[in-house]
Amino acid sequence: MNISVLQIGNSKGIRLTKTLIKKYNITDTVELILEKEYIIIKPGKTRKGWNRLFKKMHENGDDNLLMPDAIIQTHHK
Hints:
By secondary structure, this protein is α+β, with helices and mostly antiparallel strands. It has helices at 18-23, 50-59, and strands at 5-8, 11-14, 30-34, 39-43.
């Protein structure tokens, strides 16, 4: 399949059709596999169960900042 390469600001990109997006279950991310002569585009892997694990971390108190002084807060006027 041939598709056009589009100018996107200083970069270039490709546009995937709705049919391809649906067929290959592409959501927010894709994985690029860079080979010597070509690029493979695969749907990004969803991280199933992360919400459950984050909730468990919170319940165990494991979601605290390790270096709270490393976060610099700025106030905009």
